[in-house]
Amino acid sequence: MYRAPVEDIAFTLKHIVGLKAALEEGIFSDLDEDVVDAILQEAGRFATDEVAPAREAGDRNGSVLENKAVTTPPGWKELYRRWIEGGWNALQGPEAYGGQGLPAMLGVAALEMWNSGSMAFALGPTLTMGAVEAIEKHATEALKRTYLEKLVSGEWMGTMNLTEPQAGSDLAALRTRAERRDDGSYRIFGQKIFITYGEHDFTDNIVHLVLARLADAPEGTRGISLFLVPKFLVEPDGSLGRRNDLFCAGLEEKLGIHASPTCTMIYGDGSVEGEEAGAVGWLIGEENRGLACMFTMMNNARLAVGIQGVAIAEAAFQKALAYANERRQGKASSYHGEGMAPIVHHPDIQRTLLTMQALTQTARAICYACAYATDRARAAEGDDKQHWQERANLLTPLAKAFSTDIGVEVASMGVQVHGGMGFIEETGAAALLRDARIAPIYEGTNGIQAIDLVTRKLPQSGGDHVLTYIAELEAIAAELRNSNLAGFGITANVLDEALADLIEATQFLQQCVSEGRMDEALAGATPYLRLFSLAAGGAYLVRGALAAGGTRTALCRFFAENMLGETAALKRSVMDGADSLADAGKGLISA
Amino acid sequence: MYRAPVEDIAFTLKHIVGLKAALEEGIFSDLDEDVVDAILQEAGRFATDEVAPAREAGDRNGSVLENKAVTTPPGWKELYRRWIEGGWNALQGPEAYGGQGLPAMLGVAALEMWNSGSMAFALGPTLTMGAVEAIEKHATEALKRTYLEKLVSGEWMGTMNLTEPQAGSDLAALRTRAERRDDGSYRIFGQKIFITYGEHDFTDNIVHLVLARLADAPEGTRGISLFLVPKFLVEPDGSLGRRNDLFCAGLEEKLGIHASPTCTMIYGDGSVEGEEAGAVGWLIGEENRGLACMFTMMNNARLAVGIQGVAIAEAAFQKALAYANERRQGKASSYHGEGMAPIVHHPDIQRTLLTMQALTQTARAICYACAYATDRARAAEGDDKQHWQERANLLTPLAKAFSTDIGVEVASMGVQVHGGMGFIEETGAAALLRDARIAPIYEGTNGIQAIDLVTRKLPQSGGDHVLTYIAELEAIAAELRNSNLAGFGITANVLDEALADLIEATQFLQQCVSEGRMDEALAGATPYLRLFSLAAGGAYLVRGALAAGGTRTALCRFFAENMLGETAALKRSVMDGADSLADAGKGLISA
Hints:
Two copies of one chain form a homodimer. Chain A has 19 helices and twelve strands. Chain A is 56% helix and 11% strand. Chain A is α+β, with helices and mostly antiparallel strands. Chain A has a domain at 446-582. The longest helix of chain A is centred in the middle third of the chain and has 37 residues, at 290-326. In chain A, strands 4-5-12-7-6 form a five-stranded mixed barrel. In chain A, strands 1-2 form a two-stranded antiparallel sheet. At the A-B interface, α9, α10, α11, α12 and α13 of A face α9, α10, α11, α12 and α13 of B. Chains A, B: GO terms for molecular function: flavin adenine dinucleotide binding; oxidoreductase activity, acting on the CH-CH group of donors. Chains A, B: Involved in the assimilation of dimethylsulphoniopropionate (DMSP), an important compound in the fixation of carbon in marine phytoplankton, by mediating the conversion of 3-(methylthio)propanoyl-CoA (MMPA-CoA) to 3-(methylthio)acryloyl-CoA (MTA-CoA). Chains A, B: Residues 472-583 form the Acetyl-CoA dehydrogenase-like C-terminal domain.
């Protein structure tokens, strides 16, 4: 059973990504170490004792649609109730609307633990937080007054309605229509798919944020507007009014996250008797500027998905480690007890477990470094603010794509450690793999993250920002070299090589982009993102080992001597691979 | 929908692994190219038209247990009937018992296609073939007369009963008991788990091969005997007699291969009214020599699982390629048509598809090279026979582990290419990933394959056999270099480097084994197996490209310039990784 790794998360925040030093400098004036520890402890307790035990029933029963109403799995409604009563939904919410206004670091930390407990559960509140952010930043005061407090507390939940059958990665293809009404409201007509928690029984009302197009809007992404469309209209006194013209027409049968209802939503179908057809909605931000509103929360949403990868990897590692210490087969030189050896003694099983652990910790460090940058940006001004905002921008695609890729890899290794039992659903290892598989896809596929990294993040500040970041990573390698500490083996050399690979590949891609050789840049994007993540992750492991020693040093060395060498091949693929890709790629295209 | 890649398989056999040259030399006297082509064509037609369409219903409905009887999915019994009527079960069976006695190459080729059509379907006959082999090689004439003809035709099916709850990878821990009876028969008592097709409605009788232990047997693996235990006893005239004391007590709820019933089998529980308890069985081979009987068919069984990896990868690639040509999102420089570009035009999607294709083809070449070696061994005498037997032994762990590893990887990439649709079960991409995940586990986990490669296969012929094989691969690289053909980019250089990595790592591990540094050998086994497979697979892709040019050259170059560089990091992990693994591994062991 999952046990929240509170100490590991606290260590990562304080000693790897820099929170301790920042607290000592007084950068986060409202925060001190005791508050951080207390919140992590309490969130960890709730994730361990309340969320994780609900996972299996959620996976097994799933959410069910009947007569346009969705019933969540047994016990889940009560779990959600306890969760909002604990104040967990309000953790990051704005203080003006009842939130605790805590930094992103703590929000992400809590989110990691909820997701390890049950990704299908944590997903709903993640979307509510996105809705809160969009409304707070872009909606009118009237909308804020009506909706924000209840969304912050979790009394109502929020959703994001972007995807349509023909418009997934390419939102320019959206067709959902919006019509203006004289009273300042709009009417929405169209179909949205893959709407997470689009309908459920957790809350009395559901606040949908819907992307749609006005009839006179420009084509493409510059003609998309964002609307707030509640399931039940809200009366001036805050009570619920009539049902809005929208409903859930179907649930997807998915590989994983069964408890999370993935809805097809129909807007404006004339489903409310006696009312004119059209779902009543209100504009958020300006007309035709809907995508800009979405982009302001995209970094946070992507980081929230990235942490899902870390969360699944952590849960899979814990489960595999426990099994490997319990299951006995064969003999092993390091086992001197009676009978068969626990399989954790076999070197090949150790390799798998250490690989799982190292990948989890590298991805975790990248995600928390990203959250830390977000918080620093919020606390800073001027150039400093831009610096930290660019840092968050840079790390977001790494956090999203690398973490969710390794989430799948680590969950798959977890199945393997369990042997035949891993393939049996009762064991729960396979369920983690099934859940993990969505994270590299949604909130921008990992391919799109890689493209974003190369085409939009590397050019930040004329290309300087990323190089400054890599220089910081090099300083970690230099600190290791100068420390003369024992136990690191050839870690310093390997990290130096990896960072040299990263610089070469970075400058190559920056040149491709600046010279408009876009196909070369696009071809190298995915191996570059992995190269970047491994090198950055390796540096973070070193920083942790320098701070703590012991098993952190041993794991860091394992990572360097067994896994970090991959960067050379990735660099080669980035710098020399595009031509052969373009050549062979032609053979894939149907006549 | 899957379409059997008959030409690709025929090309691999003839031009990559050497069948064409062998036929011209007259090595397979009974075989000619026309026969090979005709069988592949017909098997391909059946796999495409009959097996593949049954996959989805099989996955959705699964097999169901009620009153100790298992009902297979709708239409599956009829499919099996048509399949045996087509003579497909008898393809490799001994001619003396009605089989066609065709070489392993063709058996594996057909098996690839059945598995691409539906792995859950192909799995049953795979086990029957194993039973046929064990009985033919080791059973008495009387047993052969009674059982072989019906098992060869497929009128009855066979199973393998090895695993018990405490005995998976380590068969020494077996507890199922056998007792001698005066009439030469035995009575079997015990519980077996994970028994594939242990009970079903395809055939009137099921012939179980069961590993069990006599009371006076030595401990460990030298005290295990193999028994034939039919579901229904067989009368002297060949008709079915009374029910034997065995039954299916449960089906596992699994991640994938839902249609394949995975049974808990109870032997000797007194389940037949009016009969003494004990399942009636007959010895195969000698008492306490059961594992030796199993080992004679282990290579073939492992290759049969390896080809499952290739089969799933092929099916996943075809599905993803079709989707990428159909689905449109965004713009791409290589697309000049109207509207959004088919996503196959995006370089990042091309990278994923080419990676899938290249991995599929490398694994396929390794599997067919292994089958070819088996057939050469069968056709040869003396030293030549030993050479080819050692070749088959060497390639078996690569075929099993590398192919099933890439089966999972390619199926996962296939889900990714589908974007959000990939996570929806209806699409079928996720089902391939679910099915693929068992293959790295059963028939000896891939970790055990790697250990087998390093500790038992590298020392063959005093260490010379593997070096001879690598020299053959080097000759392919030299042929490429000498050819001066265009379009290969830096393939020759990269392949030379990969083979140099392979030689270094091989000699290092040989030294570890010969000096008894076993933990170092065990630590490096898994990265070594992948290094070996990539290098060998790269050489095979070159051989195919030298023979055919065109898209094979382009894919070969893509593989070399984007994927083969990984060997350097793998070599490093093999040669320098053991110490850090042992150090960090200690931290995993519970106090």
